[in-house]
Amino acid sequence: MDQPRMTVTEILVDQMGMSAEQVVPEADLRSDLGLDSLDTLELLTVLEEQMGISISEEVVRQWTTVQDVLDFAAATPAPAGSGSA
């Protein structure tokens, strides 16, 4: 499993209380996982901390599925000096 997927999955399972079986790419954040706006804000905050980046609320509003979050995490470069060469 690649790092962005591990990070997103770990956050949803370990910190948001989801089961690993629920956290599949096609799962809808609201209807399948039951995330409300406060849960989504918590996901945003934890992702920012874990990835060392800033994420706009407009980007978060576009997330509807786990795959949307995975795509964002995979497409977002790590800040300079945080990765391995």
From TrEMBL:
List of residues that carry O-(pantetheine 4'-phosphoryl)serine: 37
Record-linked PROSITE patterns: CARRIER
Principal localisation: cytoplasm
Gene3D superfamilies: ACP-like (1.10.1200.10)
Pfam families tied to this protein: PP-binding
Carrier domain: residues covered: 2-77
InterPro entries cross-referenced by the UniProt entry: ACP (IPR003231), ACP-like_sf (IPR036736), PP-bd_ACP (IPR009081)
GO cellular component term, pick one: membrane
Any single biological process term in GO: lipid A biosynthetic process
Subcellular location: Cytoplasm
The protein's annotated pathway: Lipid metabolism; fatty acid biosynthesis
Entry keywords, A to Z: Cytoplasm, Fatty acid biosynthesis, Fatty acid metabolism, Lipid biosynthesis, Lipid metabolism, Phosphopantetheine, Phosphoprotein
Post-translational modification: 4'-phosphopantetheine is transferred from CoA to a specific serine of apo-ACP by AcpS. This modification is essential for activity because fatty acids are bound in thioester linkage to the sulfhydryl of the prosthetic group.
Molecular function, one GO term: acyl binding
Family, as annotated: Belongs to the acyl carrier protein (ACP) family.
Purpose of the protein: Carrier of the growing fatty acid chain in fatty acid biosynthesis.
Protein name: Acyl carrier protein
Organism of this sequence: Nostocoides australiense Ben110
Gene behind this protein: acpP
